[in-house]
Structures are given as C-alpha cells and as structure tokens.
Fold:
Amino acid sequence: MDFFKIHHEDNGTGARAGILNAGHGQIETPVYMPVGTKATVKAVKNEDLYDIGCNIILGNLYHLYLQPGIKIIEAAGGLHNYMNWKNNILTDSGGFQVFSLSEKRKVMEDGVEFKSVLDGSVHFFAPGNVVEMQAKMGSDIIMVLDECSPFNLDYGHTRDAALRTLRWAEESTRARKRLNSSRSKIFGIVQGGFVKDLRKFSAQEISGMDFDGIAIGGLSVGEERPRTIEMLKYTLQYTDPKKPLYFMGIGDPEGIIEAIDAGIDMFDCVMPTRISRTGSAFTADGRINLKNKRFNYDFRPIDEACKCYTCRNYSRSYLKHLVKSREILAGMLLTIHNLSFIFNLVNMARNAIISKNFRGFRNDFLERYRNREK
Amino acid sequence: MDFFKIHHEDNGTGARAGILNAGHGQIETPVYMPVGTKATVKAVKNEDLYDIGCNIILGNLYHLYLQPGIKIIEAAGGLHNYMNWKNNILTDSGGFQVFSLSEKRKVMEDGVEFKSVLDGSVHFFAPGNVVEMQAKMGSDIIMVLDECSPFNLDYGHTRDAALRTLRWAEESTRARKRLNSSRSKIFGIVQGGFVKDLRKFSAQEISGMDFDGIAIGGLSVGEERPRTIEMLKYTLQYTDPKKPLYFMGIGDPEGIIEAIDAGIDMFDCVMPTRISRTGSAFTADGRINLKNKRFNYDFRPIDEACKCYTCRNYSRSYLKHLVKSREILAGMLLTIHNLSFIFNLVNMARNAIISKNFRGFRNDFLERYRNREK
Structure:
C-alpha cells in the first residue's frame, strides 16, 4: 500500500486531494494537524478531537525531550500509550524550538548545542539522535532536524543554514535506515529563507533524497502573507509533487485556503488553539473576539452554520461571560469550536477539489471571511 | 409529592438516606454539590458532571450579580438555559462572599452595602431582593441572605450578626411568599459562630420558620475539625430533623463522612475542584500530589479501584507530566477524578446507611484514608 496517494487534482490551481496511509490509520488530505506540543492538545480531551474527525496531531521532540523526557515516554510504551491517543502522531524535530526558544545555542557541523528553556541545562541535538528519539517515542511521522533561519537573516548565514540543513537531512535518512523499521515515516524539510536560489536548490536536493514526504519550513515566520504564498509557490515548483507536501506553521482560515490552493497537503499551527484561550473565535464572517460588550445579549451560537459541540450548546453571551471571568471552560469550548471550524473548512475544501469546484469555493469563502461581521 | 423524604436512618449515628424532589429532578441524599460559582464548575463540561451522576450544582448570586449580571441571565431564560445545565441548581445568596471577599461593607438593619471585588463599585443586598434575584435566575433552591461571622469574632458582634440573620431570614420568607411560585424552594441559614447559646437559639428559630430546608452556616471557617464537628452536632440537636439539612462549605472526604455521620444531607465545597487545579488527587489511601517525582515512572491510575474517565485512561506518570507542564488538561482530568471520587464516596456512604452498616463503612474508610500511602 502506498504511503501517499493523490486521487483528485484541481484544474487551474495546485490543489489536490489524497490519502495518507500512516501507522495509526488513514488520513484524508488536505489535513490540518492540531498541535499537541507537550503530549496534549491544549484544553481539550482526546475524545473532543476524535469527535471532530481528527486523525493526526503533532507532538514536539524539543519539549517532550526536556519534560517528561524520552525515557519516561519509552517506558510508557511510546507517546501514543503515554497520552492515550489512538490515531496518528507526527513529531516535530524540535529544530524550530532550538532556534526560536533557546537563547543560547551553538550550531556545529554535527548538530546543535542549546540551553533548556526550563532550567538552563545544556543539551545537544544531532540529526541522527533526533531521528532515533522520535522513533523511540513511536512517532508515525518523524521530522528531520533543521535550522530555521529568522526572517531577516543575511544571505551568507541563510545559505549556511540551508546547506547545513541539507547535510543534516542526508544524515537523517541514514539514521532512519539504521532503525530498520518501516512503521515510522520520515519527512525532509526545505529551508532557504527568502532567497529564491536557496529555496530552489533546497527543494531539489530534498526531493532527491529518500524521504516519505517533504515539508516547507522557514515560512510564515513574521513576513507579510503575500510574500509567504509567493515563496511557497516558487518553492513548490522544484519540489517532488508525488510526495505529501507539508507547510509547517500555517493554520488560519485564509492561510489554509491559500496553502491548499498552492498544492499543500498537510499543515499545522498553534494559532487555532492559542486564540481559543484568549477569547477569539472563527466564524464564516471573520474572526470575532468574545470579550466584546456587543455579545452581552447575543444568544446566538458563535457561528449559526457550525454544528460543533460548542455551537450546539452555548451562546455568545455565555461564552463572553466565561472569557470575561477567565474560566477554564472558555478555553475548552472555544478550542472545540475553532478546531471544528478549521476541520470543517478543510473538509469543504477537500470536497470542492473532488467536485472540481475548488476555485469557486476558495473565492466565496475568502470574500465572505474577509468581509467581517460588523 | 414531599420535597424531602427520609427513607433510611442509621442506628447509632445520625446518618440518614433520603430523596429531594427538586425542580429539575430527584436528588438522592446525602449529596455533595459541586460548586459552579460563576455558572461553570471549573475545568469540566456539563457532560462530565452528568457522567458522574451529578444532579445538583451550586451557583453564587454575589458573583453572578456582578458578572454577567442578573438581567443577562434573565434574558437568557434563567441560569439553567444560560449555562445549558439540565439538572438542579442551588444558588447561594452571596452573604458569605459579601462578608469574606468585599473589603469594605456596611451592615445595616435592612441589608448590607458592599464594594464589588471586580471594580470597586458600590452595591446593596437586602434579604428581599436577594430572594427575588435568585428566583429570577430560576434557582431550584434559594438561600437566604445571612451574615457569616469570622471565626474569632467577639460575643457581642457574633450575637448581633446571628440575630440580624434571623430577622433577615424572617424577611426572606415573606419575600418568597410574594413570589407566588412554589418551584423555587428556600433554605434558612443557622449562624451563631462558636457560641452554643446562639447556635441553639438560631437553630430553633430557623426551624420554626417557613423554610423548605435548613443550612448550617459559619462552620468550617478556619477552626480545627473536631471543633467543627462538635458545634455541628450541638446545633443539629436543635434543628428540625424532618427538613433537609445542609452543611455549607465542607467537601473533603473525612469532613463529608463526619458530616453524614452527624445527620447532614447536603454539602458543598470548592475544595475538590480547587485542589484539582494544583495537582492534588484523592485516593482511598489519602490525598496525593502528582507533582511528586515518585510518580515519574508510576504508570498506574490515580486510584486502582476508581472507575472514572481519568483513571480508566491515564497514568499517574502522564498526569504528573501535565501538572508539571501546567497544562489545562491536568486540571480537567483531576477535576473529573476528584469529583468522581467524592461522588463514589457519598454513594458508598448512602448504600452503607441503607444496608445498616454506616458505622463500619465510616471506620474502615477513615482508617485507610488516614493511613496515607507512603
């Protein structure tokens, strides 16, 4: 059985619909993957995720390595057992966190030394042991260690980082072969900052290596959205289209639609869960913040068309009260809604691709979403 | 149909088992009532409460009056609709909060003026409007406005507060008659601090008034537990035993068993939900705090005999990690466990009363619970 099979391709856009045959069950693509950094998608139970049709979540090696530690997860029988999650888990390598969270780090040819955000202790990640640790956790999809360049890094350092990421990628494929197991799939990551030549070279090189999928990293890191999409589309021209393509770090409704349009199959972002904990909610008419006084007597659900648990049971007025009172239930209910909204959006996009109407769907959705509720 | 019916009384202790026929369905007593101060029992969904057999929760007039305000709750069709809770709600009058939370308050003969904890604005609660506001929220059980004396208050002030509480109680029964509705039941509150004569007089006076139930207030406010139980038992000698008897503010396993032993039918306390948010959990072998390192490799459930969602699905090791990582899921899962533990305890106590074995059950439970896990 192929790991990835594309069964519909849109005319006129890059959008495509497919199936990933991953270690813990099939995943329809395009797919949004909720972020469960520390072995929990924040503020929801696994059942809440099953209810909205979630077949894959993310875990993060950097955070799990520091707390509780890989040994404990291994002793628990792997990350699935540990957190009692029955579907797929993609684990991020922690490359992004090493470079964004740790103040002090020392990049060397064979890996990166960094200080823990928790206690300042010193650690070393190498491409090979990063693959091994993810395999020990029982990850269904392993990500290679990469060096994510900051948005405004100069050319020389961006090139150095991109080339090092390629050498680490090669080393990662060797480490994966040593594992001698086919259950865990492994994805390479294209870097190269905002330099077209580096993006092109990286995409071609990663496409030539023995990976099960290809991720586009280093985008959506602070730049304006049009630039993100331009660089994404440019990069995808040189990326093997037969493999599943994963945009790391995009998850807002507009970004998701643009990424699918460009040909992306998988994406993740903390944004939908993070905004849930500060009172924000997606609606078909744009994003709203429930702290607003105008919701005091608004007894409608967040989104009239939404069929999620939160919209079936609670009013904007009640949610406004919970947000205002800083009740934990606010974050719980908004997370359920916002994830449901994203899953529903991606489902509709997938159906539109299958019924050859993606462009129309895309335009209708974006027009209404951008014409925010007064 | 009688509001309250006692169907079993223990020999040798004051324990009894009964049924409350409240506005939103029958409640078996003894009953622990989880506290949903601000229209949510913190960190759980209503379904979590239904799952553990919860038929009644508390709301608090003081907090709900300040945020979102009674008008919004009334416009929502009452508190049940507002928070989508299908079972019973007992609302506390806010007397306790006026006297414990508000720094500045002015007690007058006809009520109490206080400053909001939220914004310092000035408000006035009178016995009559406190009853009316609870009725407007659709409360199944209304509590009268009372003046809760601090633990170490002198005799004169304790007496003044107790006598004022009695006059307010009388006024509350008149306000309730004016409501001209039988759906909302109303409970009087016995005060009197730690002065036996005042407790006796208050209990007798409240017992003589037209109340559907009687609460014992002003205990478990900082004193040693033996003193609480002594004063409770003394007070109950002078309290009408045909009415449901409610101990305000007790909810730890030992306290619950002692209160049931003394003849209490209903009790509430934030303690089981509050400790859930700081990593503590009840077990048959005493309370544990999951922050402890000894749980790192402990893959057993919190309590081997517990059948709750948390114990069926998660290990101490994982919960330790969630607590340590300050994940919201920690509070969610521990709240489910701790409430389940309390509900199971009260259920076992009830069955022991019915099968005429309460004293044996009580002694066995307390011996094991106090002989804490090493």
Remarks:
- The interface with chain B takes residues 38-40, 42-46, 67-68, 72, 75-76, 82-84, 277, 296-297, 299, 313-315, 317-318, 320-322, 324-325, 327-329, 331-332 of chain A (CB under 8 Å).
